[in-house]
Amino acid sequence: MASGDEDDPIIEEIDVYLAKSLADKLYLFQYPVRPAIMTYDNVNHLAAKIKPKQQRVEVDVSMDTMSPNYCRSKGEQIALNVDGATYDETNTYSAKMMDKQTFTSIQATTNTSRYAAGVFRKGELHVTPLTGILQLRPSFSYLDKADNKTREREAANEGGDSSQDEAEEEAKAITVRFARPESEQARQRRIQSYEFLQRKQAEEPWVHLQYHGVKDGRSEHEKQYLFCQSVDASENSELVKSPKEYLSMLMPPLAEEKVAKPVGPSNVLSMAQLRTLPLAEQVKTLMKNVKVMPFANLMGLMASGVDQISVLRCIQQVALLVQGNWVVKSDVLYPKNTCSAHSGVPAEVLCRGRDFVIWRFTLERSVMRKEIASIIKLPPEDVKEFLEHVAAPRVNRGWEFLLPTDVDFIKKHPDVAHRQSMLWLGIQSKLEKVFNFCKEDFIPKNSSQPELVHMSGDQRLKMALERAKETQLSLQKDLDARRAENAVRIKREPTSDREDEPMDTSSSSAPNGSLNGYPASSHHFDQVNGGSPASAPSPELQDFVKNTFRKHFVLTLNELKRLFNLHLASLPPGQNVFHSISDHLLQDAVLLCQCKQILVPFPAQSKAAPDEQKVFALWESGDDFDNHRRQLYDLFSKSFRVRRSMIQLKLSQELGDVSKTDVDRVLHDCCTSYAGCWYLKGTAPS
């Protein structure tokens, strides 16, 4: 013994025994709402039951209805509310009076490894580990039963004819919904939910018990198991631990309990975490969560020093411009191979429906939900979700776009606005084909639209060439006037006796100085003077048309516009050289680039849109198959569908022996096969 312990001598030594007979059955009951001096030892216990896995206990104890503190009328009223006026075996109170009370337990702690019950006898301490520590509180489940009885009585009083109710139930439509695959994160949230825990608790059956009082003989017998049954010294192992180690075993240091953090929603991300992502992912994450946002607000959420041009480039990849504000694209919200959480509709169908909703907001501020649903034909829950992304309901006005039109952004970035408008034209053409509608059906009546004049491709080409020729003559006159003025002031050389030669305005790129039978002076005029009239296609537009037709050979006007919109969307910001390209100007560019319009005789009942019935084909590509393609075009100018045998016969009659490989090459370049017949590209029935 150390010298410091001499003033604290050992008075008595007590042997400690570990009793294990009740190690897995011993519980400590606590009654936190009742004073310690008021025990339940002398109260009659009517019943008891337990769920061992959950360590949940329920005990029914009787109430002294003869006590002066008991309100008899109140007890009868509670029994009447719970059980009703009729007697039944399932009644909670058989005496038609609240004569018992139920106690329900909750766990005071989940870790009882440091707790034990000890009994001291004859200088020996016998310790038994506790299985659980439970707190018993009064249960008020009888009030829930009374409320259910009240609702049942009200429903019975308000209910009508049962046969009529059955008929109405039979007439109701049944909506079938398919659950989408559950992710691991969603499964963890479901397991931790209150509803799941309640269901798991209800699955474990109750084990009914028999209660024995404190002074009962069975209780006295069970108390003997609190003592160690074997106290033979030969079985006791020698303690070889040091006092410090033994003390740490008796009182281990407190370990910090790891509290399981609840799984948060997948769409919650702090700004600190957000700024660790690449710029493109930052923009995508913000737009996916916010759905619609002005560009100024987006820049405000970016870190200081972020380049505005870079953000503009990123936002165009994940969002579309609507009324000067950015709305997240549908395929970002509904990725491929996913489905609706409400109805199980595939993502592809959801994207088409949502694109139609957003496109409508490019035309007007407010839309009607019923009108939207009647066209896209999706479940009401999905339609409502689309609208809630970008709009808010207004009284007598339907759904109004959430944000005011951002005019400042449109003025500051006209190239981006123009590129987005071209992109919307491509989306509109797809939607018109899918949902079978016309844009004019949705244009407000009070908006003034220019009157459309339909002309053939040859007429538009003639008008464009005449305008170009007039401009050329005007410029030629100005040039002659300048030359005459210079001739007065500048003395000619003696060796030059000839007159000034006029400017060569013939086209060297087309045979015989013409293109498809029309003078090609306007194209050459652009090359000589370094500029183009406002009404003539620009060189950049003609280059795009040439490259496109050399790749596809045959295109409808609708498909050409789609490819042009994709080309505009692929251009980087600030490098857009196309401005206000109308359908007429695009067709003029086609006819100026060795192409012709094929007048395909579509049937009267054809569902093809007007832009799909305008078919253009490359007439001269410079390869060995120009003649083959022209003979093919001639066949399709007489019928909108042709069989392969007719094509083979036509080519053999006009060009001699044509191999199968050559026929396959021409058909691959210009046609598509459908139901045993061949159609020009874009004209096959969908």
UniProtKB/TrEMBL annotation:
Residues 504-515 have a biased composition (Polar residues). Pfam families: RPC5, RPC5_C. Signal peptide: none annotated. Residues 147-182, 484-539 are annotated as: Disordered. Residues 147-156, 484-497 have a biased composition (Basic and acidic residues). Residues 444-685 form the DNA-directed RNA polymerase III subunit RPC5 C-terminal domain. This is Polymerase (RNA) III (DNA directed) polypeptide E. It comes from Oryzias melastigma.
